Amino acid sequence: MYIELVKYPNINLRIKSENVTFPLDDKTERLIKYMTKAMYQHNGIGLAAIQVGYHRRIFVMDCTRYADKTQVFINPVVIKKSDETLTDFEGCLSAPGKRGEVERHLRITLKYQDKEGEEHTKTFYNLEARCIQHELDHLEGKLCIDYGKTTDSSGEEDLLKAMVESSSRVKSNT
Ligand SMILES: [Zn+2]
Fold first, then answer.
1. Is 70 helix (H, G, I), strand (E, B) or coil?
2. Cβ distance 14 to 31 under 8 Å?
3. Per-residue confidence (pLDDT) for residue 165, from 0 to 100
């Protein structure tokens, strides 16, 4: 089954996502499975619920791309971020063919809930930190191509293939 993603400039991507209540209902459980499937199907490393049409504060992430290390983040809140930042290009599954240059914190501490509603506080670095900040933007209705410097990657087929959700081309090998 091919999963169609919500794509820019669809205004639904601009909706602010809402908090999720626990215990999760069947619909939300299915949504998380659907999001995970969509992320791998589109070769992404992260995907927010809004990208499949649901404005809920949920995103999934797997920067390993091994398809067995999916992390699920529900109601995420940033509690700490590093002063050090890195500016780099990002792609978004919802804006194929475009890249945005975005300054992100190198390190980010996040409080979030898992599928069981259990609360976690964890610090993420580098690509994971960038991916999380990208997904958090989605929850606020913001896209990586909103930051100013945006380029079209049309004509660069290989780059297009490599251009996956939140993936930083320069740092993706770390
Ligand atoms: Zn995105």
1. coil
2. no
3. 62
Separation of alpha carbons 45 and 61, rounded Å: 6
Query: What's residue 81's pLDDT?
Result: 97
Ranges in the chain, pLDDT < 50: 155-164, 166-174
Report the Cα–Cα distance between both ends of the chain, in Å, rounded: 32
Say what the pLDDT of residue 162 is: 37
Q: Please give the Cα distance from 153 to 28 (Å, whole number).
A: 35
Task: Quote the ligand 1 centre to 157 CA distance (angstroms).
Answer: 19
- Is 29 tagged catalytic? no
How high is the pLDDT of residue 68? Answer: 74
What is the C-alpha to C-alpha distance for residues 51 and 95, in angstroms, rounded to an integer?
A: 10
Report the separation in Å between the CA atom of 51 and the middle of ligand 1, taken as the mean of its atom positions.
8
Catalytic residue among 90, 128, 135, 165: 135
Residue 107, Cβ density class (10 Å: 0-12 exposed, 13-18 middle, ≥19 buried): middle
Neighbours of 140 (CB within 10 A): 13
